[in-house]
Design goal:
Butyryl-CoA Dehydrogenase, subunit A, domain 3, Butyryl-CoA Dehydrogenase, subunit A, domain 2, binds flavin-adenine dinucleotide, Butyryl-Coa Dehydrogenase, subunit A, domain 1, 416 residues, alpha+beta, 8 strands
Amino acid sequence: MDFDDTADLAEFRAEVREFLDQHATLRRGDDSDWSRHGASTDEEVAAEYRFRCREWQALMFREGWAGITWPVAFGGRGGTPAQQVVFNQELARYDATSGFITAAQALVGPTLMRHGTPDQQARYLGPLLSGEEWWCQLFSEPGAGSDLASLSTRAERSPATGSGGRGEWIVNGQKVWTSNAQFADFGILVARTDPNVPKHEGLTFFIVDMQSPGIEIRPLIQAQGVAHFNEVFLTDVRIPADHVVGDVGDGWRVARTTLRSESSMISGAGQATPFGAVLELARRRGVTSDAVIRQRLAGVYADELVLRWMGWRTQTAVMQGRHDLALHGSLLKNFFTRAFQRRVGLALDIEGPEGMLWADAEGDGFWQYQFINQFASRIGGGTDEVHRNNLGEQALGLPREPSTDREVPWSATTRA
Ligand SMILES: Cc1cc2nc3c(=O)[nH]c(=O)nc-3n(C[C@H](O)[C@H](O)[C@H](O)COP(=O)(O)OP(=O)(O)OC[C@H]3O[C@@H](n4cnc5c(N)ncnc54)[C@H](O)[C@@H]3O)c2cc1C
């Protein structure tokens, strides 16, 4: 496997560097980097971080660097997955990020491009890519995570015409773990529209305006002291009929597009903690001559090369909407979480006893935050176990997991 750039990629990399040099400064790897402050418990600092993420995304959009693999017709650059990976690698060296905006784009973009109506694409994709409008993902529920298709949130057609004669749906239920719902303008929502058919068949995918009456958002504070995600309660929320994405009852197929690109997106999020950052830390701490640390650094570097290669393959599958994406996504996510664990574990070991501290640690506890974050990365976007099941079935051809509720109407199933 050749990990060196082709001539085309080397040229592209030089172009990326030129853009980044012009608009951002190199990361210093300490507290003075604004791009490190996404998890700050100081609300003012966190608000400033969100503001700068939005500014950065708007700049990339204006300069033609947003949505590198998005088709030009949807406002993207029409580039290749390899170019996206190169861009991410270079960006990781600079004090700049679009933060959670990137995540929302990865979830919503491919889904609307593949299943949205031309009107939906024209209305939402531009502001999504420019970072002007923020989105959240309203999928998981207290009783439906890994087994998402068993979800209970109900959408019923309103008997009244509503919304200027277009018809509407009324939604009731509860979602949970909704990342960044407190800042979102819109959400992608999966709800049950027919309880009398098997669980996968009675679901519909909606776009919901997060300012709609009847939506209550309650932040959940995590171990790091910040509220990354929320509970979202929906009470008689009205959604216009033309906010359905795909067909009524075909929501599972639409949601699968979102879920597939989600695992790839999460695996790309490791850019915040690249190999170079660990190496820098080791240099600052004067431990690069330690034989054990050198060996572990080499392992982390090898992980990064493997991830780069897997990232290309998976991004290619995302953009081509290929059916083997589930396989690529599961492989990538499983490898990514292990590699993330090795990387942040090494960083804390390099910090030595200070690694046990938080507030007093170097870089405002950046590595401490990432260390805790690695556990969340093994759950969000599908747990390690669920992705391994996927690999067992799809890569190894093992028998499908037994299920007692796949063929029966959802209303006849027993739920937690
Ligand atoms: C940081 C973070 C951000 C998130 N953001 C969002 C978001 O924005 N929107 C959203 O909708 N959701 C979000 N989630 C929710 C996430 O998708 C779910 O947590 C995840 O799918 C697991 O579901 P669960 O928490 O209900 O766990 P469960 O499904 O109850 O699983 C509990 C345990 O059982 C294991 N398990 C379950 N089924 C199987 C099986 N068949 N075989 C083997 N083991 C199994 C799991 O691996 C896990 O260890 C987020 C989660 C995290 C951690």
